[in-house]
Amino acid sequence: MRAKPPRRSARTTPAETLVSTEWLAAQLAGQGKSRSGLRVRVVDASWHMPHLGRDPRREFEAAHIPGAVFFDIDAIADRSTSLPHMLPGPAQFGRQVGDLGISSHDLVVVYDVRGVVSAARVWWTFRAMGHNRVAVLDGGLRKWQAEGRAVETGAARVAPARFRARLLRSIVRSLDQVRQNIESQREQTLDARSRGRFAGTEPEPRAGLRGGHIPGSLNLPYDELYRPDGTMLPPEGLRQAFTAAGVDPARPVTTTCGSGVTASVLALGLHLTGHRKVAVYDGSWTEWAGHPDTPVQI
């Protein structure tokens, strides 16, 4: 039952990771507390590729789930690098998330406007910062509005809270770690980009990047994990998709994509099947293909 909320335990089960619109509406009607007593904080994590020219913050102010705050993945990020939305340090993350009114004791429910895309990235980011009381709204704002549920307009009004973050390195991969894995093959590398980008037959949306993929990696386009309405496939459907892509469920997986966003969709999907040895390559193809000495396979 995907509508059950995460418990107070530091671990979350697949059933607790994806919550329904019905469940969230019930929490909001109950003064924003889950049955376990945790305060529910709703986060709009919408993000779009720069070339689309969309402003997710403006879209948030035009319509968002009541009580939601906007999580800007390009602002809550490491600003010392030119790579897009890389993980910030724990101190920065804790400060900025606290400014959004989110505390370390809250149950965070993340959504985006498309279904489950950038919401998965923010779900993974919270987990990478040591916060496991985090879930994704299945179908996102798209499903919420299709059901005629209430929305708010304008900027969020919040009271700052205290959030303590600590980096969980086991679910984050760096360029050096991915490079070393080409030789060791300790982990499977799974790419979320389109088949054309993976094969180098489609141009990369970011100028100057080579085409192709990390040697030895597998390919599963992230949008193959969805139903037509933007909700995630059930666990058995997810398992079938991963199996068809050649993923061995008994071995660790590192997911990658263009910049670490849709790689998180694969990480979420694997988590929903019960796979626990999953990491995301934060820099992904933007970092890998931007280096002149990294090997590329076509």
Brief overview:
Helix content is 31%, strand content 11%. It contains 11 helices and 10 strands.
- N→C terminal distance: 41 Å
Contiguous uncertain segments of 5+ residues: 1-12
Reported for the largest beta sheet, the result is: 5 strands, parallel
Strand content: 5-15%
Rg, Cα atoms, Å: 18 Å
Query: What's the CATH class of the largest domain, please?
Result: Alpha Beta
* Tally of helical segments: 11
Shape: globular
Mean pLDDT: 93
Query: Percent helix among the residues?
Result: 25-40%
Q: What's the architecture of the largest domain in CATH terms? A: 3-Layer(aba) Sandwich
Strand order of the largest sheet: 1-5-4-2-3
* Oligomeric organization of the protein chains: single chain
Query: Class by helix and strand content?
Result: alpha/beta
CATH homologous superfamily (4th level) name of the largest domain: Rhodanese-like domain
Describe the structure.
- There is one protein chain.
- The protein has about 300 residues and is of the alpha/beta class.
- The chain folds into two domains: about 150 residues, Rhodanese-like domain (Oxidized Rhodanese, domain 1); about 120 residues, Oxidized Rhodanese, domain 1.
- About 30% of the residues lie in helices and about 10% in strands.
- It is built from eleven helices and ten strands.
- The strands form two sheets. A five-stranded parallel beta sheet has the order 1-5-4-2-3.
- Helix 5 links the parallel strand 4 and strand 5.
- The longest helix is centred in the middle third of the chain and has 11 residues.
- The N terminus is likely disordered.
